[in-house]
Amino acid sequence: MRNAALIVTALCVLTLTGCAKKPADAQPDIAAGVKAKAEGSPELVTSADGVHIEYHVYGSGEPAIVLIHGWSCDSNYWKEQIAPLKAKYTVVTVDLAGHGASGANRATWTMGNFGEDVAAVVRQLQNQKVVLVGHSMGAPVALEAAQRIGGRVIGIVAVDSLKTVGQPVMPELQIEKMLKPFRDDFIGHTREFVAGNFFTADADPKFVQKVAYDMSLSPPAVAVPSMQALLHMDFTPLLPEIHVPVIAINSSLGAPADEARIRTAIPTFKAITLEKTGHFLMMDAADRFNPVLLEQLDAIANPT
Predict the structure, then answer these.
(1) Which residues pair with 273 in a beta bridge?
(2) For the packed helices 2-11 and 172-184, what is the interaxial angle rounded to 10 degrees?
(3) What are 48-71's pLDDT values in tens digits?
(4) How far apart are the C-alpha atoms of 226 and 212, rounded to whole Å?
(5) In the chain, domain spans
(6) Is residue 155 within a helix (H) or strand (E), and if so which, with residue range?
(7) pTM for this predicted structure
(8) What is the helix (H) or strand (E) element at residue 54, kind and residue range?
(9) Which CATH superfamily is domain 2-21+39-301 in?
(10) In this predicted model, what pLDDT tens digit does every residue of 3-43 receive, in sequence order?
């Protein structure tokens, strides 16, 4: 159980890099006479290493809210957020490489490469300002993307993540011990691990099974090295660069975020905990999660 708890913490971690003092990416030109695409229709962009990344755009307005899914998930995990967010903002959902409808022709599965996926999508947007919202592993991906996007990023929201900021990186032997059961029986262990660690005791069993089974069908050739890269990440060199609000909206699973410790590394950090929620709070507690997310996005978009 200790190893499972450590993996949960690692997947829900992580940290952020500043974005303010870097040049914004160039804005793409809109070709005259091009017929507008239907809202939410699939769009493709090529990431830096040649992988096709699928994304969807909804609504309009500044800033663009880019929703980044977590480990072994896809953009469908954000479907409960699209309608409330697009009423006010441009909303973008992304399938990271190896997930959902995006390509998987990648040799190295790192958070940096996932960050390139997100940055490639953002470069296609007309919006001058962007907020990155990352669930679980999506938070370190947001960090990597923010490095690449530059000053257009005005804030980052982490969903059930960042709790271990300021703690040492795990030893190599411990990481390998955690990964072994995933390598030995990916489907079986992923179902057991997800169902046993990511939900409250009173969660809907059908929802638990759906998520556990869905995640277990991720390609092990993508999922295992992605987890390995996540567990190896050291964000210490990046933390001094943070210059934007960093807000964590966390579940009540496990220990709460140590805000005092995290603020020593990220002075702009604050954490909000939604009681009696599990790791996928944007799905099974959307009625409570969405108003909190909207409130924080409004504060980022309209600072006092």
Answers:
(1) 250
(2) 100
(3) 999 999 999 999 999 999 999 999
(4) 18
(5) 2-21+39-301
(6) strand 153-159
(7) 0.89
(8) strand 52-58
(9) Alpha/Beta hydrolase fold, catalytic domain (3.40.50.1820)
(10) 554 555 555 544 333 333 334 444 444 444 556 679 999 99
